[in-house]
Amino acid sequence: MQYRRLGRTGLKVSEVSLGTMAFGRWIDESKSAEVLDTALEAGINLIDTADVYGSGMDTLDQSGFGESEAILGRLLRGRRDDILLATKFNAHVGPNVNDGGQSRYHVYRALENSLRRLQTDHIDLYQVHAFDPETPIEETLRALDDLVKQGKIRYLGCSNYAAWQLAKAHGISALHSLHRFESVQPEYSLITRGIERELVPFVESEKVGIISYSPLGRGILSGKYRQGEAPPADSRLALGEKRLELLLESNPAYALVDKIQPLAEAKGWTLAQFALSWVLSHSYVTSAILGASKPEQIRDALQHAEERLTPQELAEIDDISSSIGLF
Ligand SMILES: NC(=O)c1ccc[n+]([C@@H]2O[C@H](COP(=O)([O-])OP(=O)(O)OC[C@H]3O[C@@H](n4cnc5c(N)ncnc54)[C@H](OP(=O)(O)O)[C@@H]3O)[C@@H](O)[C@H]2O)c1
User: Fold this and answer.
1) How many Å lie between the centroid of ligand 1 and the Cα of residue 104?
2) Please, what is the Cα angle at 288 between 239 and 255, to 5 degrees?
3) Which atom of ligand 1 lies nearest, measured to the CA of 130?
4) Which among 41, 186, 238, 239 has most CB atoms closer than 10 A?
5) Which of 47, 53, 213, 273 to mutate to test the pocket of ligand 1 (most atoms within 8 A of CB)?
6) What angle do CA 87, 156, 72 make, to 5 degrees?
7) Which of 151, 206, 145, 208 is nearest to 182 (CA)?
8) Which atom of ligand 1 has the smallest separation from the CA of 273?
9) Predicted confidence band of residue 109 (pLDDT cuts 50, 70, 90)
């Protein structure tokens, strides 16, 4: 496993990190333990979760939120200090009107709840899950800055931010000498390349880390879904992941898979290995957050993670992407 510096900070994170959105949602605690152990054995040192992850994401039953954090808290007992823990807040996770968003009120409560579930006294990377247009960003940043000063958070990050939102937040942090967002967590894969237009140039200029999610397009870039055919029974599409369904409906993903598959085969790689290597071949990506529902998926995906695609392969992929209107 290779490690990269998180933006301008001195923190070194594994270039592949483990996402735990599946924990408690699609896989139970014992399967989650196998996935986690496999990731740690491979040298992954950054684990990403969120206060909202759990079975409640599909049922919208709020009692099913937080299960991923709770499982992680139990599984990490005795080895918490061996890893970097990243979590997020913003989603509406409780019955009251203030149980979501980014008010000072909710920032404090969300962090305390995550610390309790994760059985830890600090979060290494605390991320706002999305932009909150209803709360002045200064209120959120001041609350987060206070919590950094209290020692409960090491670094701040944001997720699903547009470049202008990050620029605005950075401006306010600089104006008031507050800790700034040192990383951004966008979706980035062969089928979701939108960040290349504005976010990537901004992030490169401001030395912000990119911890990108869904490098395998939520499973699409493993080639397991074929147009017109039933999905594998144990896959997330079969289990009803809404955002995966939308991605397949609104995106020429099947066409891309058909065209990229021969490039992966020519290297003797699986499509999943090729898709992960493509993300990591971009030096502006600090770490790609990989998801898995089985330990063998991690072992398979990581096999060529340290190898970069050639400039010719990257150019060929760009041509394919633009020929089908993906980029
Ligand atoms: N900030 C946000 O808004 C946001 C949103 C989404 C995700 N995330 C983060 O990013 C993490 C990763 O997201 P993701 O799970 O969508 O990422 P992903 O890596 O694109 O997709 C993972 C899925 O791909 C399939 N897979 C993985 N390795 C495979 C292999 N070697 N061969 C065949 N199939 C393989 C599995 O699908 P099956 O389980 O169906 O087999 C697995 O669940 C999440 O856990 C979360 O931490 C953040």
Assistant:
1) 31
2) 60
3) 3
4) 186
5) 213
6) 20
7) 208
8) 31
9) very high
Per-residue pLDDT reduced to its tens digit, 143-202: 999 999 999 999 999 999 999 999 999 999 999 999 999 999 999 999 999 999 999 999
Burial class (CB in 10 A: 0-12, 13-18, 19+), 197: exposed
For ligand 1, atom 25, the nearest C-alpha belongs to 219
Pick the CATH number of 3-219+283-307 from 3.20.20.100, 3.40.50.1220, 3.40.50.720, 3.40.50.2000: 3.20.20.100
Q: Which residues line ligand 1 (CB under 6 A)?
A: 19-22, 48, 129, 159-160, 185, 213-219, 222, 224, 235-236, 272, 289-293, 297, 300-301
User: What whole-number percentage of the chain has pLDDT above 70?
Assistant: 100
Per-residue pLDDT tens digits for 197-248: 999 999 999 999 999 999 999 999 999 999 889 999 999 999 989 999 999 9
For the chain, the structural domain boundaries read 3-219+283-307
Residue 95 carries which side chain, given as an amino acid letter?
P
Q: What is the amino acid identity at position 50?
A: A
**Catalytic status, residue 225:** no
CA of 96 to the centre of ligand 1 (A): 31
215 CA from centroid of ligand 1 (Å): 7
